[in-house]
Amino acid sequence: MAKGNISVDSENLFPIIKKWLYSDKDIFLRELVSNGCDAITKLKKLASIGDAQINEDERFKVTVSVFKDAKKLVISDNGIGMTAEEIDKYINQIAFSGASDFLAKYKEDDDKGSQIIGHFGLGFYSAFMVADSVEIDSLSYQDGAKAAKWTCDGSMEFELSDGERTERGTSVTLNIAEDSEEFLDEYTIRSILNKYCSFLPIEIYLEGEEKDEECECGEEHKHDEECDCGEEHEHEHEEPKPINNTNPLWMKKPSECSDEDYKEFYRNVFMDFNEPLFWIHLNVDYPFNLKGILYFPKINHEFAGQEGQIKLYNNQVFVADNVKEVIPEFLMLLKGVIDCPDLPLNVSRSFLQNDGYVKKISNHITKKVADKLTSLYKNEKESYEKYWDDIDIFIKYGCLRDEKFYDKVKDIIIYKDLNGKYITLDEYLDGKEEKDVYYVSDPVGQSQYVNMIKNQGLNAVVLPSMMDTHFISFIEMKQSGVKFKRIDSAVSDISNTEEKDDAAKEQDEKLIQKFKDEIGDESLKIEVQSLKDESIPAVILLGEQSRRMREMYRSYGQQMAGMADMFKDEFTLVLNSGNSLIKKIDSLNDEDAKLVIDHVYDLAKISHSPLGAEQMTRFIERSNKLLERVI
């Protein structure tokens, strides 16, 4: 048996770190700016415990400077700085984290505000993804420290020598490679900074190359050069502004934020000028550190393809949009920010690890959303009902995707009835022995059925979206005995139930046969019922289960549309034996009977769904004939 240590060939490791550590090339800027922020945060920490001296009025910042002509990008800070020994320790030893080393020495158990961003000691090497060579110029905060300069051309060789920097802090200069010259564009750099660094805790400034300015005498010169004309001119220059907000709204306590603050933050971050319906401010210290704001936007009723935008941050550093491991899928319809310093990110801060821990965070976010909705229902019911048409898709989808979420919100799911009133399922059933729930998907198109229901003193709920087809099947599984029936699927509550004698049954059979012979559709079922509303000659019923299954398969998109054809619509034509027109069909001659049968059938179909072009043409021609006969 042999034992030993696995060896790592650093010459092979370094190219891997440079080229494949990060999923996106532009992340190099996030990493270097974050390092600058860490350097300042460390200095502030040391100053707070008396181990470093800083001026009270000193303005701390990280500056990104673009020198397009020289093909250089410089990221500088006025933070803690490094000695030559520290550069050798933290830069030359790959994956030795200066941040972790610092935290081990100075971070107290109850100190959650230090916001040291780096952990793995690899972020600096992302510079070589875009640079042929990199230089570090640094001067440590320590008394008597000498400036140090480090250079490396991307190989395993480096030079470390005395530097010329006179101010405390560090500058990292990237000599941009030919294949990465897009990062010399000031607009591109600004976009990357806005993406990743908009809310970093230290001010970030972007500087471009100085442009020549025209003097009042007509000459052009640099803004800090004396004019050749010898005259003294005052040149106005705008005070540079940081590109970031160092104290974003989610870092504040909810009590410190006004409604207008929340709305303005929403507009600025998501560029959505439609006001959100409401929001949830997350502020958790235990069992993990999590802050954030989730907004409920107006949601398109047919939400297919619609996705919100939830930005994930780690210590105010942007990580990614819509990370499904942290944000439950059904919450993706929302917009917001989540900042969790405890997220177990991998070394590139691009992906999550430790599924168990992440799941706890995800579950907690779900719970807070459910708690907010429940609070709204109980304490602001009028507002909750006002929001319902915009949020019902979100809540129903959440119930379908997350059983725990359903358990938390099942008692606050409401339905709009035919009178426009919002009621719960229990209120609709109201202790009824039969748990049939009538519903309408198109109140206008199904108006005849709606009137029939209303005339019998019955009620129905309005379920207009494709999502509702899935949702009512889910509720039927969850609540024993509950059956949803679209109002055009059954007539049990709108027909008389008296038993017919043999003669009446025989008469019904003859009537059915007449309709079958004229309509000529073998798949059409025909029944005779005595409807309570005698003014209606006939109605079309559509089988609930086959129709529901067909709609569900169609909702899955083109790939499943073919499966829908397996479930044929089961139409039933119900003739109303109490209607005067139906009673007279037997007394008509064959030609008139055919006209009436076809017309009654088309009228029943029209009340159910629009006729096709050819059918409508025949319907109009037949209507004209009937009018001529009346006149």
How are the elements arranged and paired?
Blueprint: H1 10-20, H2 27-48, E1 61-67, E2 72-77, H3 84-90, H4 98-106, E3 131-139, E4 148-152, E5 158-162, E6 169-176, H5 186-197, E7 203-207, E8 213-214, E9 220-221, H6 259-270, E10 278-284, E11 290-296, E12 309-314, E13 317-321, E14 335-339, H7 355-379, H8 381-401, H9 403-409, E15 414-417, E16 422-424, H10 425-429, E17 436-440, H11 447-455, E18 461-462, H12 466-478, E19 483-486, H13 502-519, E20 525-529, E21 538-542, H14 544-555, H15 558-564, E22 571-576, H16 580-584, H17 590-606, H18 613-630
Parallel strand pairs: 1-7, 12-14, 17-18, 17-19, 20-22
Antiparallel strand pairs: 1-2, 2-6, 3-4, 3-6, 4-5, 8-9, 10-11, 11-14, 12-13, 15-16, 15-18, 21-22
How many beta-strand elements? Answer: 22
Number of helices: 18
Low-confidence stretches: 95-100, 109-114, 116-121, 346-351, 558-565
Outline the biggest β-sheet.
Answer: 7 strands, mixed
Q: Please, what is the average pLDDT?
A: 82
CA gyration radius, whole angstroms: 36 Å
Neighbour order of strands in the largest sheet:
5-4-3-6-2-1-7
User: Percentage of helical residues?
Assistant: 25-40%
Strand content: 15-25%
Structural class: alpha+beta
Shape estimate: elongated
> Kindly, what is the distance between the CA atoms of the first and last residues, rounded to a whole number of angstroms?
111 Å
Question: Any descriptors?
Answer:
single chain; 631 residues; alpha+beta; seven-stranded mixed beta sheet; five-stranded mixed beta sheet; 18 helices; elongated
